[in-house]
Amino acid sequence: MNTLVYDGTFEGLLTAVFEIYERKLYPVKLLKGEWRNGALFEEVIPVVTDDARASRVLRGLRKKLSAAGVQRLYISHMAEIVGEDCNVLGFIRHVFDSDQNIEEDYGNRYVMRLSEILKMVRREKHRMEAFVRFQKLNDGTFYAAIEPDFNILPLLIKHFKSRYADQKWMIYDIKRGYGLYYDLHDTQFIEMDFDEINKPVNVVAAYSEDEGIYQNLWKNYFNSVNIASRKNTRLHVRHIPKRYWRHLTEKI
Amino acid sequence: MNVDRITEKLNILADAAKYDVSCASSGSDRKNKDKGLGNASNGICHSYTEDGRCVSLLKILLTNHCIFDCAYCVSRKNNDIKRAAFTVQEVVDLTINFYRRNYIEGLFLSSGIFKDADYTMERLIRVAKKLRTEHNFNGYIHLKSIPGASAELMQEAGLYADRLSVNLEMPTEAGLKLLAPDKNRQDMIDPMHFINQAIIQNTEEKKLFKSTPMFAPAGQSTQVIVGATPESDQQVLQSANYFYKNFNLKRVYYSGYVPVLVDKRLPALNTAVPLVRENRLYQADWLMRFYGFHVNEIVDSQNPLLDLDIDPKLSWAIRNMQAFPIDINKADLQLILRVPGIGLLSAQKIVAARKFAKLGWDQLKKIGVAVNRARYFIICKSNEFERRDLTGQNIKQFIMAQSQSKYVRNIQTQLNLF
Questions:
Q1: What is the complex's ipTM, to 2 decimals?
Q2: What is the value of pTM for the model shown?
């Protein structure tokens, strides 16, 4: 068994694929992270990301998969789900080892797993489109903090940009320490020094005057539309798992 | 802004609107225009109430003053409750401010009928018009068509709203006569008919001129209350089928009657909400719309009621054992869709995947098939399959012994109440 360690980028992954085929490294295990020199991993092979090799593999993938198929592969990797690198790699190997396009070969475990990953990622993206709660700040910017299970912030750009075209907004992924900011023209990724912003004083002072009013109206509305005689807590929690509650105005 | 007064109004008028179960915000394709606010496309449920229903739209009545006296309705004329009315501007402000914070997909505006149908409809339209024209709001708007409103007003409503709906309320005319003596079924059907014609005409015009303005792009829907009157499921579903076929409805909603009023024509106040029956009706509805079932296959004069223990597809299957077993690696998609335990997406995956290699039980399970139900009805790439000659009743018992209904707990808590 060969163990490969790569830097976690998509280019790094593709470089690893190149190495595996060129050096016929099989069976193989793929790990994300920094390569450490030591006895802990005796036969670890570090993968040095190489753009030329990566793009050669990408060209190969493009020949064997549809454009949407390549994109699905990219999204599955970008979501950064722990422990899925081997399945993503297995999928890529299956692509290259077959003569035809295998995107719909759901009987194959890697194809099926990728479709499951994609479903999880899409659901998380959809949840964020639903559960983002903007708070209006003094300068007119609408700010929201999120803690999604997977890295889906880049997938949110299209939705929020076309919906909230006439207001400045920012969505910040607290877990991964970066955010998305829209300045009425374009979006960009940003990182903030959170110690400053997280101070309770700063947060409350930064809200616009009517923010509290609308938060209260929303909470009131949320309670009014409930039908007590139909109470169904199990269903409620299945739809909004508790880990999302801390950012939901109506559940705080 | 008088916050306390607005809050009180919102509480009263959201509470009164909540028995309208429709909350769909999908089916429209309104784009964000000129860098304005919002768009409407696939629909998002932004939150869920504690009863597990989705909150997608700001669903409120413009007012709960009403000149009608429908027995099933909290806002009926003779009910002694607090009344309130929003101004047009108040509804507009609430909608915009909720929308900007990503609380909602848009507005669902209904109203009690004050003065007359046209007067009420005109007010509803004014809200939608203001949102669209003055605030460049492109989010979802669902307007109620008030029964008896004139054709001109319906035409105008369609220009601003994404969806229009008239609630039939009772599945049959007799039921309506009994509980809503002021209402006339024809008054509900007329606007539905008008909107349907207008949508068809709009689609034709769009083919010729791309610039034709949209007319109710998300179509129309309706709602029937179930369990307030003694209609059978067969009557309910046949009536739904009639409206799907003749009026191109996007949705028929089934609302299990929640006892809120004392009236000798209605079930008593302590009657449980028919949650299971409601669920079975929706399942049957899905079978008609997505699974290629005809209404008469689901319910007929021998089986006028849906089986509450098992879902309607399983129920159909055990009545039609001659159709099974089917070979999952060969059968048409239409047949696979009829197997209990196989949903729409799984069926599509099966048909795609079997082109590569024949599928066995493990793979079916992975794909998402509920094998515990499907195994009695299919064969696949495996020597294991159901060899016993089981009757439908046997299968029903086996399946029920294995699975526990998600409703059991609910039923128990409901019984504990009295």
A1: 0.91
A2: 0.91
